User: Which sequence fits this backbone?
């Protein structure tokens, strides 16, 4: 593997002595490595990723979105008279000038970025300031792209947060029952079906023109934010593969789903799974403080609903994948997708009980 990793990095013009690589296990879709070289008297580190082309059918368009959006953010930051180096990811160009490299007969799709100096990520945190900072990070991402021409973006994954469509796919999978698992999860299926009306409300509002499409990140997990390793201030937002037109509540909601759960996303003991209202408030404060003033009345009134919607949607996706035989999300144990689906279900139920309280907290910070 060392030889392959080194040779791909060389295709991106990386010089110096190759030292080693580490596998980064975060993320359910792409394959990620941190790679170290030695040059000019010091270690240099890079993030090398193999894109999942089963999930991203048109990876060149994904990279095109990423370069346009990062250029845009970089230009905005520079306007403020500061260097953008630590605040936005930079992808290397290959020898032919594209920001990706296609390797081997199977057409593996690789990309390489600089590792942002002195940065850290968190899978979970009990530090409320860190979580508030992540709210600011995604809020700022929104602000930077507020005047970006939304329609010029490629659709990386069609109908990504279209919950109506997610439910249709779910029902179709149950019907086909390819791996014979549907009968094992009848209870979970019924509970998710009971959430269908509320979880499709926001999408229907958007279809009626009541919610605007903006440039959204669409995968706002806490571990997609880089923080300064000393001060824990937010630096940059990463994992830009799903940047597409979307609703502001997708970004707010998915961050809450992942980061304001009292447990990990795949907790098996669902009796422990709750919405952590302190974390919820911390994120809301950071997010609304940065982007709140740009939001319409309808956008504001759907933020808490967005958290519930994204939790149900993600759970439906995990359960669909379990029923399909684990084709989409990486798993590290048998039944992993089912554990994830059960965990999202428990979280959604608890959110439903707290929905009014959650919305009041949003309004407190607007
Ligand atoms: C996937 O790749 P990762 O782990 O950041 C997924 C998200 C889900 C998330 C659930 C392209 O994100 O939509 O919310 O898993 N990404 C894609 O943890 O499907
Ligand atoms: Mg991702």
Assistant:
């Amino acid at each position: 593997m060392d030889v392959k990793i080194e040779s791909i990095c060389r295709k991106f013009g990386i010089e110096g002595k190759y030292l080693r690589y580490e596998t980064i296990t975060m993320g359910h879709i792409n394959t990620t490595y941190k790679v170290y070289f030695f040059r000019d008297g010091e270690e240099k580190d890079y993030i090398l990723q193999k894109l999942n082309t089963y999930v991203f059918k048109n990876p060149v368009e994904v990279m095109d979105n990423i370069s346009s959006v990062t250029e845009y953010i970089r230009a905005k930051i520079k306007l403020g008279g500061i260097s953008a180096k630590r605040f936005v990811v930079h992808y290397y160009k290959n020898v032919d000038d594209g920001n990706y490299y296609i390797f081997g007969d199977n057409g593996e799709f690789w990309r390489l970025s600089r590792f942002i100096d002195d940065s850290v990520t968190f899978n979970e945190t009990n530090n409320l300031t860190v979580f508030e900072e992540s709210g600011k990070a995604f809020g700022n991402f929104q602000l930077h792209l507020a005047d970006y021409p939304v329609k010029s973006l490629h659709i990386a994954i069609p109908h990504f947060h279209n919950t109506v469509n997610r439910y249709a796919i779910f029902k179709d999978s149950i019907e086909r029952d390819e791996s014979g698992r549907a009968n094992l999860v009848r209870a979970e299926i019924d509970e998710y079906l009971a959430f269908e009306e509320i979880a499709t409300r926001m999408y229907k509002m958007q279809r009626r023109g009541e919610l605007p499409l903006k440039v959204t990140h669409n995968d706002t997990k806490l571990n997609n934010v880089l923080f300064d390793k000393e001060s824990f201030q937010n630096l940059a937002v990463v994992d830009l593969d799903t940047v597409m037109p979307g609703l502001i509540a997708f970004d707010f909601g998915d961050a809450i789903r992942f980061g304001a759960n009292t447990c990990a996303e795949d907790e098996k003991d669902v009796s422990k799974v709750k919405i952590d209202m302190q974390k919820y408030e911390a994120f809301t404060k950071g997010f609304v403080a940065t982007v709140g003033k740009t939001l319409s009345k309808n956008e504001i009134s759907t933020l808490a609903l967005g958290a519930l919607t994204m939790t149900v949607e993600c759970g439906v996706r995990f359960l669909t994948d379990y029923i399909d035989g684990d084709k989409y999300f990486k798993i590290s144990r048998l039944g992993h997708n089912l554990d994830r689906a059960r965990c999202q279900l428990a979280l959604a139920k608890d959110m439903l009980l707290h929905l009014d309280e959650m919305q009041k907290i949003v309004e407190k910070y607007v």
Observations:
- The domain at 2-117 is CATH 3.30.200.20 (Phosphorylase Kinase; domain 1).
- The beta strands are 17-24, 31-39, 42-51, 101-103, 108-114, 119-120, 214-216, 225-228, 234-237, 244-246.
- The CA atoms of residues 3 and 82 lie 38 Å apart.
- Residues 27-29, 55, 219, 221, 239, 241-242, 265, 314 surround GN1 (ligand 1) (CB under 6 Å).
